[in-house]
Write a structure and sequence with these properties.
Layout: E1 2-6, E2 12-15, E3 19-23, E4 41-49, E5 54-60, E6 64-71, E7 73-78, E8 83-87, E9 90-95, E10 100-106, E11 113-120, E12 130-135, E13 145-150, E14 158-159, E15 165-171, E16 176-180, E17 186-194, E18 196-199, E19 202-205, E20 209-213, E21 217-222, E22 226-234
Parallel strand pairs: 13-14
Antiparallel strand pairs: 1-20, 2-3, 3-4, 4-11, 5-10, 6-9, 6-11, 7-8, 7-10, 9-12, 13-15, 15-22, 16-21, 17-20, 17-22, 18-19, 18-21
Length: 238
């Protein structure tokens, strides 16, 4: 087993006034040649957006884009005609494919929005753009790693054009369990949303991240009540 540790305080940071953004991987003005991506996982941004503020219409192409609000609501509009609100407890996915334009704004005028923005390289280019959004309330379970994303259209959660699986865990202190990879050549990146956990004797705290490769399974222990995001991705090279 090999691991790479990204402590919360080591992430890139940008303060745009209305946007406070932490970057787990190189993004925009934050560039670390030793930390461009983890396999197919290209972007993991931890954003806080001021009330009523957001991203004006901008383009994307050939990228799988996943949005997970942690608190608050996002108003979304795109060039496919989709318009709506994504709330905490939901997950949104866009396959940018041949090209898409969209805007994202904090729906609320009186409180901050906290959101994870994740980009994954697709396994095929120039697909038709698509959009999906679901609630996690019907699939989330306490003290269990529940699947929220996969490469399979008929599987639990949303799906993307990549051999990738995402799981979340709302774990009580003292919980212990194992994670087994779906594909032996994949790697796993774990992001601690809240709490404190241990993975193979490595203690991880809020907003820490750890990449794990060259193993088929590993053990997770919740050292406090914790919320985690597990992202299993192919270990492609740029």
């Amino acid at each position: 087993m090999k691991t790479v540790l990204h402590k919360a305080e080591s992430r890139g940071y940008a303060d745009h006034g209305w946007l406070k953004a932490y970057h787990s991987f190189s993004f925009a003005n934050y560039y670390n040649p030793d930390n461009i991506h983890f396999g197919a996982l290209r972007v993991l941004n931890d954003d806080t957006i001021d009330a009523g503020k957001g991203f004006d219409t901008h383009p994307h192409e050939n990228m799988e884009i996943i949005t997970i609000p942690l608190s608050g609501e996002i108003e979304h509009k795109d060039s496919m005609g989709n318009s709506g609100v994504i709330s905490a407890g939901e997950i949104q996915v866009m396959s940018a494919g041949t090209g898409i334009q969209h805007s994202e704004f904090n729906e609320n005028q009186d409180k901050h929005l906290k959101v994870l923005q994740i980009w994954v390289f697709p396994n095929k280019k120039n697909v038709d753009p698509r959009y999906d959004q679901i609630s996690l309330k019907d699939i989330e379970k306490e003290n269990e790693l529940f699947q929220i994303l996969s490469p399979n259209k008929n599987d639990q959660g949303v799906w993307i054009h990549q051999n990738t699986w995402f799981y979340m865990g709302n774990l009580k202190q003292g919980w212990e369990g194992s994670f087994k990879l779906n594909e032996k050549n994949n790697g796993v990146y774990i992001f601690i949303i809240e709490g404190k956990i241990s993975i193979e004797n490595q203690e991880l705290h809020k907003r820490d991240g750890i990449g794990i490769t060259e193993t088929s399974d590993f053990t997770i222990i919740a050292l406090s009540d914790s919320r985690i995001l597990i992202m299993e991705v192919p270990m492609i090279n740029l």
